[in-house]
Design a protein that fits this description.
Layout: E1 8-12, H1 17-27, E2 33-38, H2 41-55, E3 63-68, H3 74-80, E4 86-89, H4 96-101, H5 103-123, E5 128-134, H6 143-158, E6 168-174, E7 176-178, H7 184-193, E8 198-200, E9 206-211, H8 212-225, E10 231-234, E11 238-240, H9 241-252, E12 265-267, E13 279-281, H10 283-286, E14 289-292, E15 295-298, E16 316-318, E17 325-326, H11 335-344
Parallel strand pairs: 1-2, 1-4, 2-3, 4-5, 5-6, 6-10, 7-9, 8-12
Antiparallel strand pairs: 9-11, 10-15, 13-17, 14-15, 14-16
Helix pairs in contact: 1-8, 3-5, 5-6, 7-9, 9-11
Length: 369
């Protein structure tokens, strides 16, 4: 936490699930100032109210500035980056199908927007900038993943463009943040509250998982570790999505007046471009990856292009990594382990009986038989 104390930190996409949690955790680091920007007018207003409330009673309140801002607007970024030490870049278009329908918008935000971030950081001599990427950037099968991969490449390449300036550019890459707005937990919870069916795309599907708090903590850790051009890959447990559905049915069905044993589960088939397993690190990347305590660091492929950088991490475990990082079913948690993991992190607490659950669009709450 001391790394962030007395610094000015800017978070893009601050009203998203990850951005908001980063802001929350940064408050406890006692920075000099937190600047938050987002395109969502209502949510940036509510975030400002939350920060004002959180600051009350603190012996040393943190100065905060919440503004409407779009990473497509280079001039606005340039003004917002003035005097900033660290930038955490989470703003992006992230829904796969929406990016397929609007690929040029995905390019404008996820690629041109990244270029704007890089140029504003260089123009304002920002100390370091961290880009939050996705597992979908590995061997991408869709527009969103391809745009995220390009964002990683731009951040790595930016280290050769800084011309003796101090800015360090690095990326973090992680998979599913369970409990976030885009995760499967809210979908399953609403389906269970409505009496089912719970819909699985494919019963063989596996995924890496982590909690929101863990993901943001590791983004902050990566910001401190960054040397320049790396992609930090977080270590995460593996689950089978069918097991998550089973655990949620067992935990929630009777809370809403339904029999867990009779709750229907329907397999609807994988979505276009959706993989049965996740890749967080490819075979090619393993040849230039080092292992740290809580993450891997994928070093730049074209080291000769960049300035000489010493990747001297304090928590180095191994300088060699043998296997690609893939969500193999053989490494998946059992349903018992998954149930304990969910309870330990209170992931299902928001969906218990006493918590109002909005129905899925087009459905009505069924009465218990």
């Amino acid at each position: 936490m001391s790394f962030f104390s007395d610094r000015t930190i800017l978070v893009t996409g601050a009203c998203g699930t990850v951005g908001r949690e980063l802001v929350r955790q940064l408050l406890d680091c006692q920075p000099r100032e937190i600047r938050a920007i987002d395109t969502n007018e209502s949510e940036i207003f509510f975030l400002e109210q939350e920060l004002q409330t959180a600051n009350r009673g603190r012996p040393h309140p943190v100065r905060t500035l919440c503004q409407i801002g779009d990473i497509r607007d280079r001039d606005k970024l340039n003004r917002m980056f003035s005097g900033v030490d660290i930038v955490l870049h989470t703003a992006a278009l992230k829904h796969v199908i929406l990016c397929e329908r609007a690929p040029f918008d995905a390019v404008q935000t996820n690629i041109i927007g990244v270029r704007n971030i890089i140029e504003a950081a260089l123009d304002n001599d920002v100390e370091r900038v961290i880009f939050t990427s996705s597992d979908k950037a590995v061997n991408p099968t869709n527009v969103m993943g391809t745009s995220k991969l390009m964002g990683e490449r731009l951040f790595t390449a930016a280290n050769s463009l800084k011309m003796q300036r101090r800015t360090i550019f690095s990326s973090t890459r992680f998979g599913n943040v369970l409990g976030s707005r885009g995760s499967v937990i809210p979908i399953f919870a609403r389906q269970i509250a409505a009496g089912g069916p719970v819909t699985l795309t494919d019963s063989r599907m596996t995924r890496f998982i982590m909690t929101l708090e863990e993901s943001c903590r590791l983004v902050l850790a990566a910001a401190e570790k960054a040397r320049g051009g790396e992609v930090f890959v977080t270590k995460m447990p593996v689950i089978q999505i069918a097991d998550l559905a089973r655990v949620m049915i067992d935990e929630l069905a009777e809370q809403h007046g339904f029999s867990a044993a009779r709750m229907p589960v329907t397999e609807i088939g994988a979505k276009p471009g959706e993989k049965l397993y996740e890749e967080l690190m490819s075979d090619e990347e393993t040849r230039r990856t080092v292992e740290l305590t809580e993450m891997f660091a994928v070093l730049p492929a074209f080291r000769s292009v960049y300035e000489e950088i010493s990747y001297d991490y304090d928590d180095l475990v191994s300088r060699t990594v043998e296997n690609a990082y893939v969500s193999s079913p053989a490494n998946a948690m059992s349903t018992e382990e998954l149930a304990l993991w969910c309870r330990r992190h209170d992931l299902l607490a928001p969906w218990l009986k006493d918590t109002p659950i909005l129905p899925m669009p087009g459905t009505e709450r069924k009465r218990a038989a």
